[in-house]
Specification:
- Helices cover 53% and strands 19% of the residues.
- By secondary structure, the chain is of the alpha+beta class.
- A 5-stranded antiparallel beta sheet has the order 2-1-5-4-3, sandwiched between helices. A 5-stranded mixed beta sheet has the order 7-9-10-12-11.
- The protein is elongated, with a radius of gyration of 40 Å.
- The two termini are 22 Å apart.
Length: 408
């Protein structure tokens, strides 16, 4: 259920976030292209006006009033008339600003560094000047420092809006995901309550039935039927017990956790299965790091180890070995139970943790299994903020549990 909530939340959050980023990106790209087009358009117009005069340029002062009187409102534009040796013979400001020493220095640098005629605009977020240089004819410079500031301000403003928007989107997504999953959560909770209540209600009459069977007089005529009743009653009692365990595992609360020596819990519980393993000539080997302390629910962790080791024995090959490993690193604790035997098909590695899922139904029925053990194990792991997975490789099956120590 928690996974459903998370998936719903992240789906909504990502979709809305992508739309917000798209519109912010679209706005900045449009603004950038508009400014770029305006700069290029002004450079092109100045080029056309400059080259309209026949035999241009010459060594005489340039007196074309159309060029000299050309005013540009949006940018600071300057034209420098050059002779055949690229010496500046005239300069024109197409705005209300006078030509400063800074602009003159920039013009000289451009003339000295360029060997060919070209238009240079560049990346507007990083440049202060754009120009059109024609060797031996003219140089037009556009001061785009203000344009750069405007574009950067728009970009920073967009990023700020996205950050603020992400906070709002987070809140909205959480509310929407809660609203969408509310009916599912209610249904799931009702199902859990029903299982728990039904199991409790069945426990008492079943106990009475089992006690009554034990008191019945056994003779040759009714022995078969009484044995059948006893067998099925035992199976039902086992199922109800498992259902109650499943219900308990779904209601584990962090406030009931305490600091425990996980190494000791795993070691002790694994070794209690040695007699059961001995029946199949299976040996249990432990490789446990000492004194691993963990904030947990002791009885549930004990149950988790029991389920995994019992499962390994049940599906393990005779005359084989089961290894139980427990280790820790800086950020996590890893528990592994490995057995040689029945392989889990890749497509069923996730399904085996579902309630009542049984790969081999006939085998599980004979052994009194109902497909609830691994569901209980998964609930216990999730309640401790961990994850569990199973995989088979080279004839060995591994159940791996990881607990994040940073959260505890």
């Amino acid at each position: 259920m928690e996974n459903l909530k998370k998936k719903t939340f992240f789906t909504i959050f990502i979709i809305i976030s992508l739309f917000a980023v798209f519109f912010a990106t679209f706005f900045n790209i449009q603004t950038y292209h508009r400014e770029y087009a305006g700069i290029l358009n002004n450079l092109t117009r100045m080029r056309n006006l400059t080259l309209e005069k026949p035999n241009f340029p010459n060594k005489e002062p340039f007196n074309d009033d159309r060029l000299r009187n050309r005013k540009v409102m949006d940018y600071e534009v300057y034209t420098f008339i050059l002779d055949e040796n690229n010496n500046i013979i005239d300069k024109i400001s197409h705005s209300d600003n006078n030509i400063s020493k800074k602009i003159m220095t920039q013009a000289q640098n451009i003339i000295e560094k360029n060997n060919t005629s070209n238009i240079k605009i560049g990346f507007l977020y990083l440049r202060n000047y754009a120009y059109n240089f024609e060797q031996g004819k003219y140089l037009t410079i556009i001061d785009i420092a203000n344009t750069k500031k405007t574009l950067l301000a728009n970009l920073l403003f967009s990023l700020l809006l996205i950050i603020i928007g992400e906070i709002l989107i987070y809140i909205i997504s959480k509310k929407i995901s809660e609203w969408i999953t509310k009916p599912v959560v209610m249904s799931f909770n009702r199902e859990k309550e029903f299982v728990a209540n039904a199991s409790h209600e069945l426990k008492t009459p079943l106990a009475v039935i089992m006690a009554s069977i034990d008191c019945l007089e056994v003779n040759k005529k009714n022995e078969k039927w009484i044995n059948n009743l006893k067998s099925e009653s035992d199976r039902m009692n086992n199922l109800i017990t498992k259902l109650l365990d499943l219900s308990k595992s779904e209601y584990l609360k962090a406030e009931n956790f305490s600091k425990n020596n996980l190494s000791m819990i795993v070691e002790k519980r694994a070794l209690t299965f040695e007699s059961l393993a001995y029946e199949k000539n299976i040996t249990i080997e432990t490789n446990i790091t000492e004194k691993i302390n963990f904030l947990c629910h002791k009885e549930s962790i004990d149950e988790l180890v029991s389920i995994l080791v019992d499962n390994a024995i049940s599906h393990g090959s005779e005359n084989s070995k089961i290894t139980v490993d427990l280790s820790n690193s800086k950020n996590e604790i890893i528990l592994k139970v490995v057995n040689k035997g029945e392989a889990i098909p890749l497509e069923e590695c996730e399904k085996i943790f579902e309630r009542f899922y049984r790969n081999d139904k006939s085998h599980n029925r004979k052994s009194g299994r109902y497909g609830l053990g691994l569901s209980i194990a998964k609930n216990i792991v999730l309640a401790h903020h961990g994850n569990i997975k199973a995989y088979s490789k080279d004839g060995y099956t591994t159940f791996e549990v990881k607990f994040k120590t940073s959260e505890h």
